Amino acid sequence: DAKTTQPPSMDCAEGRAANLPCNHSTISGNEYVYWYRQIHSQGPQYIIHGLKNNETNEMASLIITEDRKSSTLILPHATLRDTAVYYCIVRVPTGNQFYFGTGTSLTVIP
Amino acid sequence: DADVTQTPRNRITKTGKRIMLECSQTKGHDRMYWYRQDPGLGLRLIYYSFDVKDINKGEISDGYSVSRQAQAKFSLSLESAIPNQTALYFCATSDPLGEGGELFFGEGSRLTVL
């Protein structure tokens, strides 16, 4: 599975959009991009995933560049409860393992 | 009730003691995982299992063993605990069918080895 690079930390004002970047320059054609978040020390929570096209669900939007070497997770209207560590992972859906890096610590500021 | 349940949630033990962390799930998933998280770090995979007869080592399996007693149960053992195994441990499950394959995590077991 390809590895990812994320900034260690970011701040976002409450009510504004939070844009979390992820680089995955070695991603292969059959690997999906997954995003998880971990609030405090709880178990990580699935947010969204995608292959090529942009995806949106009730939690977030995922924008994947055309060359698939990077992606951005967008939380459209960040709230204080979105303060968490966000992990970007690339893998094949039937692959053996999920590799979690150190993620991006997002702080939403009132 | 939680779909993935870990017991105990907190445990303090002494060096050299045998410890077992248990995980049970009601999601009906075949795949189960044990992860470890140290402060300020991401999750690292210890062991994973794709069915009852399948056990695989992850990134950091030394000092740990596992048992898959049934589809719903996956236990992690520390045969002789040492202080650097102090960490937060997570169990997770996944269903590989389709493109989903997302992980579902338990609430974690915090282990302190003195």
Annotate the secondary structure layout:
The complex is a heterodimer of chains A (110) and B (114).
Chain A: E1 9-13, E2 18-23, E3 32-38, E4 45-50, E5 55-56, E6 61-64, E7 70-75, E8 84-91, E9 104-109
Parallel strand pairs in A: 1-9
Antiparallel strand pairs in A: 2-7, 3-4, 3-8, 5-6, 6-7, 8-9
Chain B: E1 4-7, E2 10-13, E3 19-25, E4 31-37, E5 43-51, E6 54-57, E7 65-70, E8 73-78, E9 87-94, E10 103-105, E11 109-113
Parallel strand pairs in B: 2-11
Antiparallel strand pairs in B: 1-3, 3-8, 4-5, 4-9, 5-6, 7-8, 9-10, 9-11
Could you explain the architecture of this structure?
The complex is a heterodimer of chains A (110) and B (114). Chain A is an all-beta fold. Chain A has no helices and 9 strands. Chain A has strands at residues 9-13, 18-23, 32-38, 45-50, 55-56, 61-64, 70-75, 84-91, 104-109. In chain A, the strands form 2 sheets. A 5-stranded mixed beta sheet of chain A has the order 1-9-8-3-4, with no helix packed on it. Chain A starts with 8 loop residues before the first strand and ends with a strand. The mean pLDDT of chain A is 91. Chain B is an all-beta fold and 114 residues long. Chain B contains no helices and 11 strands. Chain B has strands at residues 4-7, 10-13, 19-25, 31-37, 43-51, 54-57, 65-70, 73-78, 87-94, 103-105, 109-113. In chain B, strands 2, 4, 5, 6, 9, 10 and 11 form a 7-stranded mixed beta sheet that branches. Chain B has a 4-stranded antiparallel beta sheet with strand order 1-3-8-7, with no helix packed on it. In chain B, strand 9 and strand 10 form a beta hairpin. Chain B is globular. The interface between A and B is medium-sized, with 24 and 29 residues.
